[in-house]
Amino acid sequence: MGGHEFDVKSTRTVYDGAIITLRVDEVAMPGGRVAEREVVEHFGAVAILARDENGRIAMVRQYRHPIGRRLLELPAGLLDQDGEAPLTAAQRELAEEADLAADTWHVLVDLASSPGFSDEALRLYLAEDLHHLDEAERVDEEADMTVEWLSLDDAVAMVLSGEIVNATSVAGILAASAADRTGIALRDVDAPWTDEPTALRDRRRS
Questions:
Q1: pLDDT (tens digit, 9 = 90+) per residue, 133-154?
Q2: Helix (H) / strand (E) containing 171
Q3: How far, in Å, CA of 98 to CA of 135, rounded?
Q4: Closest Cα to residue 125, out of 159, 174, 84, 91?
Q5: Quick check: helix, strand or coil at residue 199?
């Protein structure tokens, strides 16, 4: 393991948008060189693999404008509400997107989405012992969103066939399948989240 400290010598903001900020850091490299590194700051997010008593998982089909089509995804949302804990955000998103609540929660997997250029990270929960809620009011893309239920095996098959391509959903589905197969215990909801992003939330707060 290397011992170099990648100290930031200076930083400047290039773009500050609604859900991302782009900054450029000058970083000390091994050997003495200083290099520029572009960093996309992101709120971070949570996602939920909600599984019912029959082993089916709840997925949503939602339009994603950057790629111009609807994707089948696990319910998810940004950590963009000041002071909201990740588990609380996950519970809110599950209610808002799938009209579901859960009595049992575990951490399924933590993801660093694109660590080469962004601090975006996501915590994905397994939610079980489900019960249905009244239908939530939805706007914009979510007004067109539908909920679909799949067996975990069918979801794995759709990942491997290229029908499910959302990276968070791929990771969650395969992680749940691996956990079931191996019997590895999942983490409690208060498990440390080393890479939880805070830069953009701190920037907005200040």
A1: 988 887 777 778 899 999 999 9
A2: helix 167-182
A3: 8
A4: 91
A5: helix
pTM: 0.93
* Interval 159-190: pLDDT, tens: 999 999 999 999 999 999 999 999 999 999 99
What 3-state class would DSSP assign to 105? strand
State which H helix or E strand residue 157 sits in. helix 152-160
Cβ–Cβ < 8 Å for 95, 133: yes
Report the DSSP pairing between strands 45-50 and 121-132. parallel
The single-letter code of the amino acid at 99 is: D
Look up residue 69 and give its two tokens: 């089509």
Q: Which residues are catalytic?
A: 142
Tabulate helix, strand, coil % of the chain (nearest 5).
25, 40, 35
Eight-class DSSP state of 191: -
Distance (Å) of CA 20 to CA 13, 16, 26, 115, 118: 11, 6, 20, 15, 10
Residues 6+ apart with CB under 8 A from 135: 99
Give just the sign of the alpha carbon dihedral 105, 107, 113, 115: positive
